[in-house]
User: What shape does this take?
Amino acid sequence: MINVAIMGYGTIGSGVVEVLEKNKAEITKSAGVAVALKYVLDLREFPDSPIADKIIHDFKVIEKDADVQVVVETMGGLNPAYPFVKASLLAGKHVITSNKALVAAHGTELLAIARDKQVNFFFEASVGGGIPIIRPLYRCLTGEKIEEITGILNGTTNYILTRMDKEGASFAGALREAQELGYAERNPEADVEGRDTCRKIAILLSMAAGKEVNYEDIYTEGITKITDVDFQYAEKLGASVKLFGTGRVEGDQVHAWAAPVMIGKSHPLYMVNDVYNGVMVKGNMLGTTMYYGSGAGKLPTASAVVADIIEAVQNRHQNVAFGWTGEKLEIADMDTSVHRYFIRVAGNTAVNKVRVQEALKAEGIIWLEGLDEFAVLTEKMTEKDLKERLIPMEAVFQSQGEDGVRQMIRTEL
Amino acid sequence: MINVAIMGYGTIGSGVVEVLEKNKAEITKSAGVAVALKYVLDLREFPDSPIADKIIHDFKVIEKDADVQVVVETMGGLNPAYPFVKASLLAGKHVITSNKALVAAHGTELLAIARDKQVNFFFEASVGGGIPIIRPLYRCLTGEKIEEITGILNGTTNYILTRMDKEGASFAGALREAQELGYAERNPEADVEGRDTCRKIAILLSMAAGKEVNYEDIYTEGITKITDVDFQYAEKLGASVKLFGTGRVEGDQVHAWAAPVMIGKSHPLYMVNDVYNGVMVKGNMLGTTMYYGSGAGKLPTASAVVADIIEAVQNRHQNVAFGWTGEKLEIADMDTSVHRYFIRVAGNTAVNKVRVQEALKAEGIIWLEGLDEFAVLTEKMTEKDLKERLIPMEAVFQSQGEDGVRQMIRTEL
Assistant: This one.
């Protein structure tokens, strides 16, 4: 029998207890041995819960109990998750976490300790909730050069953008709806500013490249500036706007960003709507693959944690190679990344249109009835090139007392 | 160093050689040791090829060479693939195959020999080409009760149906186009009659259930009777028609079929078009996940074979548990499966419409301008129930000299 301790009896922690109980037969069969819950660490008491007698408040009980072989961390945040996880690994215990902040900030160190101690540090649930995406990277795409990994990694923002797309909702209205349904936090900043997506793409890129990625190197832009007008243009273009986390190999450089991107109906992530997540992986031999499912939610996320527990039990006497080393991955400056841009400009006059088309190497003009503005899609160019073209153009608009550029969204059109 | 022998230097076999060469560095890193090609077994000579000196014609050379640890079977068919694979496993060699016919017919026996000999028999490439789907079932969804697995598993038929959907092509026209592009064989029967899909869903269902599935127990219906008129109705319904392979747990029963199904835009497999494949897996905790990618093609399929080679090398001293036992999975009679049906009936008269609506418990009538027929969507009912309702209805039509039912397609609407 293998004993598990769960740290943090919140949504995911209690979900893990539920999955361990409900799917006991499947888990025992896959793990090859029974998996029993021994402790649940939480500050609170749960006197009426079936796990009331397993609640403890002192981490040292877990750390010192040699009969606990697997520790599950579902507390979130860095403190005390980080010291507890580190101490558990140093005590020779396998650790499973659903905590993207912990993995993005300390993954390299914790994986090194796990290797050193010949235990495992698994974190499938930290990205994409229940979607298997970490494990395919180290189990399935093992013979590939990964050229790109792009995901819709945040359910909250995807719900908001879907409502804006399908119902013409405003950003504020869609956010309020998401909050009422419990999909968005009271303070939604980490989601809508792209910080959650940034950490998740950092983890995926570390896995794909086998190197340490500093998430602070990743260009991050949220969705707060996306408006219902952008979606009106998108509809005319047969497109939508999604918050992407992307890591892309371009020649010798690696670019990475968390940012809104306008995509067409043929993009494999176009149909990833509402709170669902999807991750697209391009390999040099394999081409494009895509993984789709519930990006959050109690039971799907808990299911991913339990799959990690099973793999830890199957490999309880050895460290499974992850390939994520301490070598630093250099992320190239966002200015050198190449995109095609969707640009909205104020002033629906023929002179303005010609000026913008010439300045931005744009072909057609997109115009929506009743608006005092228009939009263009530029040629593909670097962000540096775009900025250098925008500066003199904006200067002319300003000299004439006009507004100029109202919006810029990168596209995959 | 690990030595590999490839049996069959056709499209996939030569693709494996190419991937082993082009991604040598990644493969060595993942496998933890260099992987070298020692023999290529083929009836032909390839004097101008870089592998000319590795070509052999006698399987016994591979069987008797103790330095060959991994054998790749990319010949296809059952003879001599089956005796060669069996002999390789009995000789203590790991075997990787891309051959769905072999796995569907002899998977149980070959997996048992592999367990017995403490080697591995892997077949990721036999279903879904490059898409990781076999491995997620035994590596990722290990703590789940799988409730349904449904795939678009055949690129040829998906290409044909996509052309019929997007361009209004006839079945014959789309098939001809697919043949001209090399997507369909000169004799396309195994694809268009659903036999290829049947074998692939049998393999997936065996993996999901951990039991032996006799593919002959799976109800199989091809796409040859699907017409451009069906797609005109589908368009009006915001739907499409796809060839599905499905295994579904319903209470105590397991149903399985390979058949055309009409699905709406919100179905996760709706956007799987052209030669792409997609597999949807529903777990009791995880909910719906979906896996998408190139279902065929030289390099994607070869990449899946190479991932299997790497896993065999990583586990060269142990048998990886697959959970596919010799226990038989009983597939319930198709008559007891429950669907909502799309039914087209000749004779666009008010009397006929009322008669059909009443007989089939259908709500609305779908009618396309200019056609001497109409269609209905029934309530959900068993196939047995449907047949019992159709018989007296057809009798009335016949007594009046009318055509009656022109089409029946199961739906997920």
